[in-house]
Structures are given as structure tokens and as C-alpha cells.
What does this fold into?
Amino acid sequence: MTQWPEAPAGDDHRKKELVKSRERITAWNRELQSVHHRLEKALEEARDAIRNGTRTQTLSPDLRSFCYNFCSALGQHHRSEDAEFFPTLLEQMPELEPAITSLTQHHQVLAQLLDDFQKSLDSAESSPRRLLKQINTIKSVMKTHFSAEERSLNYALRVLDAPTSDSVRMFGDIR
It folds into this structure.
């Protein structure tokens, strides 16, 4: 458990700043984990639905829409991180450049996997088995990426100097 320094007695301003800092730290850590959790849950729902199909062309329009929405949400999350979140972190902590470069490369791999998955959804030749294989690969890469991101940015999220109201801009609008 993190030990927070105590403000000297009578130093109300310092106490308020410590409370504000604790709230901000908790909010940024929770927000990133929450976005990742929602994306993982959506992926599981898509996997379950595909398991129940027989052929790609017989997948319900709702499932197709759900899969497209999932791909769009994950892609938007990564584009927001690349355009807003990572530059903000690098501005404040340039030493994160190697980690952020690696995370950005993960984003590129995931973007290609998502593109391939969407093409398979559109193909009459794709079987649910093929879709499951692709979505399992996406899940594996996504899980590895999320873990690496949370681990490598843990400290940065604790000291990030940005209003938590910027979370949608930095992480995408994932609900």
C-alpha cells in the first residue's frame, strides 16, 4: 500500500494539495484500467457470440455491428493514446520514450489484426472458427499490450499533471 506523506500540522494548503494529488492519481490509474476492462469485456462478448454461429454469412447483423463497434472502439482508444495521451506523458517525462515507442508499435500490430478481422467478417468464406482464431489472437495481443501499458506507465499515471476531465480526449470515449 502506498504511504502518503503527512502534511505538517496547520498547513491546510499542503493538506488540500495532497488530497487533490491522491484523487488525481487514483482517477488516472482507475480510468486506464476501466477502459481496458470495458474493451476486454466487449471482446469476450464478441467471442461468445461467434462461438454460437455456424457460418460468417449467417452471423446476425447485431453481431456484425457489435464486432465492428468493438474494432472501432479499440482503434479509437489507441489513436487517442497516440495523439493525446502519449505526447502529454512525453512532454512531462521524456524518459518514457522507449516504453511509449514500444506501446505505439503494439498499437500498429493491433490495428492490422483488427483490419484483418473486419475483412474476415465481410468475407462469405470466413468460418466462425477462423473468426474465433482471429479474435483469440486479438485477445492475446491486446491483453499483453494492456498489461505492458499499465505496468510501464504505472509511475507516470501517478505523477501525470493533467486534469482528469481530459480522460476522454486521451483514452477515447469508451463506455
Q: What stands out?
A: The radius of gyration is 20 Å.
